[in-house]
Amino acid sequence: MATHRTKALTATAAAGAALLLGAALAQPAAAVELPRSAVAYFATGSNLTGTQYAVDTADTGCHNLPAAARSAVDFTAANIQVFFNADCATGLPGKTGSGYYALGSLHWADFPYPAVSYRVTG
């Protein structure tokens, strides 16, 4: 009988541990808050190579880049709209339209066209 009780106690302890672990892992995403000043920058080369230009994620105005960027990283809580025309004008390079690139929080990307301006959004 002692062996049966030991097995039952071990099984109960394992189930309780699994329940606690599941509860800890099931926390809502809002429980982890990233600082808005984490890392975000544009790079003149693909794969985040070349000259880097830092992004101030607290500044939501339109910004023209000092040089065209081929990639960027956004490891912050903000999102970044990337434009292929100056002054945050939508459209493909040199054309009007609705095109722009949405670089989401916690992402990096190589752009299909050189990025020349951007705006930080929520």
TrEMBL record:
<protein>
    <submittedName>
        <fullName>Uncharacterized protein</fullName>
    </submittedName>
</protein>
<keyword id="KW-0732">Signal</keyword>
<dbReference type="InterPro" id="IPR006311">
    <property type="entry name" value="TAT_signal"/>
</dbReference>
<feature type="signal peptide">
    <location>
        <begin position="1"/>
        <end position="26"/>
    </location>
</feature>
